Automatic annotation (TrEMBL):
<dbReference type="GO" id="GO:0003677">
    <property type="term" value="F:DNA binding"/>
</dbReference>
<dbReference type="InterPro" id="IPR036388">
    <property type="entry name" value="WH-like_DNA-bd_sf"/>
</dbReference>
<dbReference type="Pfam" id="PF07729">
    <property type="entry name" value="FCD"/>
</dbReference>
<dbReference type="InterPro" id="IPR000524">
    <property type="entry name" value="Tscrpt_reg_HTH_GntR"/>
</dbReference>
<feature type="domain" description="HTH gntR-type">
    <location>
        <begin position="20"/>
        <end position="88"/>
    </location>
</feature>
<dbReference type="InterPro" id="IPR036390">
    <property type="entry name" value="WH_DNA-bd_sf"/>
</dbReference>
<keyword id="KW-0238">DNA-binding</keyword>
<dbReference type="InterPro" id="IPR011711">
    <property type="entry name" value="GntR_C"/>
</dbReference>
<keyword id="KW-0804">Transcription</keyword>
<dbReference type="GO" id="GO:0003700">
    <property type="term" value="F:DNA-binding transcription factor activity"/>
</dbReference>
<keyword id="KW-0805">Transcription regulation</keyword>
<dbReference type="Pfam" id="PF00392">
    <property type="entry name" value="GntR"/>
</dbReference>
<protein>
    <submittedName>
        <fullName>GntR family transcriptional regulator</fullName>
    </submittedName>
</protein>
<dbReference type="InterPro" id="IPR008920">
    <property type="entry name" value="TF_FadR/GntR_C"/>
</dbReference>
Length: 246
């Protein structure tokens, strides 16, 4: 069985732990509020003090919930201006599955196969639809990853990069599919990067995808992403051979 470790940011507690983090509950409540109020893209959410009072939580818990929703593309934080709704179409679909209690070797391999199918198309569409601002945001996030240790912080940025590509692709269904995978993807990436001696290969593979997107090369981006995801699966399998019983 895998060794005990601190879960990556955004990873839900398993059913064995009986409870969920307060921030996750607040994130669900904010999504419910957006639905109930019929908020649209560009609408502003209540202020931080108002949300803290509404949900009876600390500033830390609220900010973690906001961070999760922002990384998922649901809201956008504009410093000095407030928090705004960014995505509403995906909210009508069932929320991401809690796969935390189901992780086995087969679960990880299923995630790897799903990633190959979904993310290759995401990269192809992103290369067709990315704006200059999108490209700058991708490159900035990737540059930040180069200075991070191989731990939960790196995992958080890695997941954000893949979700950012999904948002750039501009397909609400593909984005929702990535949201369904988000929790599993976080565990998947963390298990791998926390055991690697280096993430240099992973970063080079990301860079190849981003470069193809910048070149507006859909086929190149598709192939680069397929190469990355398949290599990620091989790296994960090496870890599983040591840590997880079949």
């Amino acid at each position: 069985m895998p060794a005990e470790r601190t879960p990556p940011p955004g990873t839900p507690r398993t059913v064995k732990e009986k409870t969920r983090q307060v921030s996750e509950i607040v994130a669900d409540d904010i999504i419910a509020f957006i639905k109930q109020q019929g908020l649209k893209r560009g609408d502003r959410l209540p202020t931080e003090p108002e949300l803290m009072e509404r949900y009876g939580v600390s500033r830390t818990a609220l900010r973690e919930a906001i961070k999760v929703l922002a990384s998922s593309g649901v809201i956008e934080v504009r410093h000095g201006h407030g928090t705004f709704v960014l995505e509403t179409q995906s909210l009508i679909v069932t929320p991401p599955l809690d796969l935390g209690a189901l992780f086995t070797r087969q679960t990880y391999m299923d995630v790897a196969e799903a990633r190959t199918a979904i993310e290759s198309e995401v990269a192809k569409l992103a290369a067709q639809r990315a704006t200059e601002q999108d490209l700058q945001d991708l490159e900035r996030l990737h540059a930040q990853m180069k200075s991070l240790p191989e731990d939960a912080a790196f995992t958080d940025h890695d997941v954000r990069l893949h979700l950012m590509l999904a948002r750039i692709a501009g397909n609400a269904i593909l984005l929702q599919m990535m949201e369904v995978l988000r929790q599993a993807l976080s565990e998947y990436i963390y298990l791998t990067v926390s055991r690697l001696q280096t993430v240099a290969d992973l970063l080079r593979e990301h860079e190849a995808v981003i470069n193809a997107v910048r070149r507006r090369d859909p086929e190149g981006a598709q192939l680069a992403m397929r190469h990355h995801v398949q290599n990620a699966a091989r790296r994960l399998e090496q870890v599983l051979n040591v840590e997880i019983e079949a």
